[in-house]
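U., I forgot to send this yesterday:
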Amino acid sequence: MKKNKLVNKKYTQEFFYCLPAFAFAIPTFPVMILLPALYVEKYDISIAVIGIVIFLAKIIDIISDPIMGWICDKSFFNRKLLMFFGAIISGTSIYFLFFPFIIPDPLYLGIMITCLYTGWTIFQVPYLSFGYDLESDYQKRTRLSGTRELFILLGLSTSVSLPFILNDEYS
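Result:
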């Protein structure tokens, strides 16, 4: 009975570790695919300008990832605290990207998409390294990482299928 309790606790811990991967994967499709189309059609920003803005934001993201890794390695802040702030920044940025408080221009898009990518970095780098704290055994860490990636795929699948489900429901 005691071993059964430990197994259930382990699966529960694994589930709750992987759950944020599902949630953070859901906005990926709308941001990468739908956002440029929205800004072209609704706000009349050139697709080339949008591409340049996103490219520049990705350059900043490329620079911020190793910096965030260094911050995590040095343990300047608690990983859970970083994940919390990263989630807040990401959620706020996504909201203001899709529901802007002003008529957006390329500068607005650049600031908001950079905030989004920075929020994702602040969340994901500590989150991904958190798995190493949960499991010390290589095989168990591999299983945990595989399960996390499965949750990411489920989140992406949900993101892609949600518009079709909602469209049928509200038609």
